[in-house]
Write a structure and sequence with these properties.
This protein is mainly β and about 60 residues long. The chain is about 0% helix and about 55% strand. Strands 4-5-6-7 form a 4-stranded antiparallel β-sheet, with no helix packed on it. Strand 6 and strand 7 form a beta hairpin. It is globular and about 35 Å long.
Length: about 60
């Protein structure tokens, strides 16, 4: 499961163990408005208020762009 938080973080959760597994932060100058994940990929895409889409790599915990 992927969630957005008011503290400018995107968090990934293991629903079987009910634990947070990853945390990503993003610039406070742009608000994240939507997220789309693919269960067959180790990446997810986040959309921001500015219109920018960012691809996040879960394995390396980095933004791919």
């Amino acid at each position: 499961m992927i969630t957005l938080s008011n503290d400018l973080t995107i968090r990934l959760w293991d629903v079987d163990r009910l634990e947070q597994t990853y945390e990503f932060s993003y610039p406070n100058s742009d608000v994240c408005t939507c997220i789309s994940g693919n269960p067959q990929s180790l990446q997810f895409i986040a959309g921001f208020k500015s219109g920018i889409l960012r691809v996040f790599d879960i394995e390396t915990t980095s933004i791919v762009q």
